[in-house]
Task: structure prediction
Amino acid sequence: MGFPEIRLRRLRTTANMRALVRETKLSVDDLVYPLFVRPGRGVKEPIGSMAGCFHLSPDLVADEAAEVADLGIPAVLLFGLPESKDDRGSGAWSEQGAVQSAIRAIKERVPGLLVITDICLCAYTSTGHCGVIRDGRVDNDATCELLAKVALSHAQAGADIVAPSDMMDGRIAAMRQALERNGFDYVAIMSYAAKFASAFYGPFRDAAESAPGSDYSGTELRDRKTYQMDPANAREAMREIELDIEEGADMVMVKPALSFLDIIRRARDKFDCPIAAYNVSGEYMMLHAAADAGLLDREVAMMEVLTSIKRAGADILITYHAKAAAKLLK
Result:
């Protein structure tokens, strides 16, 4: 059989027909909304490099979390800034740190909302790197010990999921052991398992005040390529994901999303655990800039982008578009 018996346009005739046969269903349940927390009270400062995003103090983060929950979004992802920075990033595990305070405030205000916390040192170190620097390099194992302390402090504050983004070898095992030893066996780990050294993090680094220091110009420490992945490597990404699952990760993440849809698909085909994808700041602002220039429809493009990430195989979509998308999906 062929034309005219087979006419695929029959399945596109109306909006209801298209909805009936749609293969990929995007839901508000898929979304996670990132939030940036800084010390203080009553703080709500626009982030210049990220439209519609703010630095919030813990009290106002709780208000934002309540709005997120009202939209039906099941989870937020917290990033923090410290009062001060040092070479070890010690503010990251302070009991009174911005993230720890925000977790407690959110859990008091919206107990059912899932709180995911980013585990990294880059926003807390005076060097801007994700780990401790010794002898001109990032010391992997010493960093893992500190990351485990951060994860434990977040669990003690009430986090549901800890999400290490540093890309140190062995950090999942270190965190899992610390959580288990201290009675937090129920806290899940969402590993940034395949995090690539990407140009699309630029706006985020402004928001998190976490760019590597200028002192490292001309050295291997001028960027994060000695620990974040080479964007050219797909097979290596599968090895990274597999190792993290073996070490105790409950969920894994591919970051960024749009430049690495093929990695999401490979991961979906190979692994059975939940897979998250991070629609990062540069991807978010690229769409906003094009929409502001009148080059595309903001809402239509946003939903197309998010659907493509879901279609590639992601179960969880971390995106700054989450609130806007949720309003369209409700």
The chain is about 40% helix and 15% strand.
